[in-house]
């Protein structure tokens, strides 16, 4: 509606108006929008006070209830009832999902997300990648793109040679079966410890990886088993998070597809020998991109180049996103540059979506030696904290276990997404789970409260909007912002915009709920049911876009 008002005002302005020129008055009683007339004074050769007076007198439009000139500003009071009726009708229309757009026009976006490494714990970084990537996918879908979520499993590389060597020396089957990731990680750590004073171990590890690359049956069988067991553990986390993928093609998938790509790089005259290895030079200010080691082993970058080309051929994406931590920025800049040098114009459509660390008491939450934080344990702790809150607040709730899961997991997702992804985030379960403040449970709670009023008030009936009080108007103004908020979040690939919006709408609703006696005012009830239903729809949709559930009761 801001744009509509802008259009009305344009006819009085000697210069083109843009959205930013229309301000929000400091106090609500001064109106909904304010137009400062100072920028027009020179052109019109009149004082801003005179101009404001003239506009206020002349303006007339169904969206505008009245206009007042104050000190060179035109303060505009919108026609609340007209706007409210139109908006509620739009949100309640079951044939369109409010806030959706077709901006993406069905274009395909591939999203590389989660991508944990097998035989290693699922780290906090992988959690961030998973929830950020998933929300970005949901946002893009809402804006008319088709998304392909790719879990590029880290299941290839020299480390698997080390792991095979360690397992053959010190491993045993039962232990791996009982606690796969923990056992494999221990073996891997032991390998590194022993390799410090045993040189031949590293050579053995390299040889083992070579045999894996060459397709040695026994080596492959072991590797496959490690992979299956690891994926089982990861799957439990994905189930908890409620996240699915369209492809699990990881690094190993590209093992037999790299040769032609390396050849292509060479044919294009880009492959240079440097200290025995093959590299692509990227200029003065960037280290070269390593393509092949002296023993013929391929690297992380070789696989990513191959995967990028494969994704373009398979999906013909309009954009290819990689949700991976800040620390890999150089890698992405490098391989994008290589693709550009190879002549692929679509290299420009590749975008690294970096994010910061998760900190605990100011320190990186690490998955290294000794102090492993197992993500599954963290999730389960959040769920049990949510469960105990439910036990005290609402002991008679049906399906307590499910609600606890939705709240516990939601709290972690929201705690991550509410800040811009580039920031490091402080991880504190107690804070994330509070039902007051800027938390996931707070937003979920607002939704559940809305649902509870609706259960008591009954279904939507015919209604008319006769007057709109300040509390209701604040909700309407927030609801009206939803489509442009969704668009901005998708354009910026920034879920935190939705999280902040959800907080704002939840707060606005809570203040309405605390101040307006809904159920005892029969005259306004039908209209307020429509208003609360609309609020519930938008709150639930905002939560969905973050990858969260909205329990009906909690
Ligand atoms: N497995 C990698 C890691 O854990 C992340 C992979 C990211 N995706 C990619 N295409 N490189 O660090």
TrEMBL record:
Cell compartments where the protein resides: Cytoplasm
Q: Provide the E.C. number(s) assigned to this enzyme.
A: 6.1.1.19
**Could you tell me which InterPro entries the record lists for this protein?**
Arg-tRNA-ligase, Arg-tRNA-synth_N, Arg-tRNA-synth_N_sf, ArgRS_core, DALR_anticod-bd, Rossmann-like_a/b/a_fold, tRNAsynth_Ia_anticodon-bd
Per UniProt, the keywords (alphabetical) are:
Aminoacyl-tRNA synthetase, ATP-binding, Cytoplasm, Ligase, Nucleotide-binding, Protein biosynthesis
* Catalyzed chemical reaction(s): tRNA(Arg) + L-arginine + ATP = L-arginyl-tRNA(Arg) + AMP + diphosphate
Boundaries of every DALR anticodon binding domain copy: 443-554
- UniProt key word Protein biosynthesis: yes
Q: Name one Pfam family in it.
A: DALR_1
For molecular function, the Gene Ontology terms on record are:
arginine-tRNA ligase activity
Q: What protein family does this chain belong to?
A: Belongs to the class-I aminoacyl-tRNA synthetase family.
Query: What is the name of this protein?
Result: Arginine--tRNA ligase
Q: Supply the source organism for this entry.
A: Sporosarcina psychrophila
Taxonomic lineage is:
Bacteria, Bacillati, Bacillota, Bacilli, Bacillales
